[in-house]
Amino acid sequence: MNSDSGTTIELNAPARVKGWVAGGGATVELLARCGGFELGAVLNVTLRPNPRGSVFDFDYHRKRSALRTGGIVLLRRMRSGDDGTATIRSLDVLMENDKGGPAFVIQGAAVSLLPPPPGSKSALVEQAVIAMPDEGIRITSVKDGVKRIREGLEQAAVFGKPGLVLTGELGNGNVVESVLGVDVNLSVDEVISSLEHNTDPETMAAVRSSKTKWHLVPIFRADVDPDKTKISAQRLNLDYGNGDDEFGWTRSNAVLRAYGTEWIIIDTAVISDTEDTEAGLLIDILDMDA
Predict the structure, then answer these.
(1) Which residue, 228, 231, 223, 232, is CA-closest to 264?
(2) Contact 277/6 with Cβ under 8 angstroms?
């Protein structure tokens, strides 16, 4: 969870280790925009003093977790300092080095964590649905969306089971959030066909006649890495989506890693800059980024 303490904003951010600095710190390259820092910013990062006295800094992970240059870490509760420096509350090692499968960060994603299977004794998440707002489009009709959404949908299909969210506001103020795909392994053509032929006539008419914005956003469903991740809805103070017709979306940076031809989610770093990380409607995230 992120926080806004007074005027000091603390954010979570994925980063790649480039080297080491004195005091158990590291020089890192940010893999996502974060607060006032841009993608690719290079910072010297150190751990803030821990009141309990335990030190799990970069030196600790070099020795115990085999963290090396090129490795990817999640900087938790990062606070900017002066002259290209920052401090963090803690860090998680997502990849020890860059010799394994490639990593990819989907910036400004919207993430819906799916609950563990019935009977599971763990609160850890096993699957998640990731929406890709940057690949989404504003549409004036469903037919318009069918013509223009293929490229974004093909990108989503690289990472998992592809699908689409059609969302917008009706004349009475109610929000429509229609989800296609992701529950089964459909091809890009099948998802587009479902959009064209299975969208109900009332929604199609509402899109054509609406004076407000309607969006079509590619999404995908993928497994969460069972060994590396610590993703838990309870830990992040989020609601679960049910993976069927009700999703709770949270603005995040999604970090993925390739294992052969399959991409696995290894973390979702919530990037809200306040304590309010309650999962909500996708359209609220789209409007926030507009």
Answers:
(1) 223
(2) no
| Residue 67 and residue 129 in one domain | no
Q: Is 196 helix (H, G, I), strand (E, B) or coil?
A: helix
* Residue 5: band (very low, low, confident or very high) from pLDDT cuts 50, 70, 90: very low
Is 101 in contact with 260 (CB distance < 8 Å)?
yes
Total tally of structural domains belonging to the chain:
2
- Average of per-residue pLDDT values in the chain: 82
- Identify whether residues 94 and 110 lie together within a single domain: no
Do residues 208 and 158 touch, judged by C-beta distance below 8 A? no
- Report the amino acid identity of residue 255: V
**Helix (H) or strand (E) segment spanning residue 20:** strand 8-21
Last residue of a domain, one of 40, 68, 100: 100
Alpha-carbon gap, residue 205 to 201, rounded angstroms: 6
Contact 175, 167 (CB under 8 A): yes
CATH number for the domain spanning 80: value is 2.40.50.140
Q: Is the domain of 44 the same as that of 63?
A: yes
Helices (H), 35-161: 58-64, 142-148, 150-159
The tens digit of pLDDT for each residue in 233-280 reads: 444 545 555 555 567 888 888 888 888 788 988 877 776 544 445 668
3-state secondary structure of 176: strand
Say if CB 162 and CB 156 are below 8 A apart.
Answer: yes
Query: Do 81 and 140 belong together in one domain?
Result: no
Span between the terminal Cα atoms of the chain, in Å? 24
Structure tokens at 118: 């019935």
Taking a C-beta distance cutoff of 8 angstroms, is the pair 208, 170 a contact? no
Residue 133 is classified by DSSP as: G
Domain that holds residue 53: 3-100
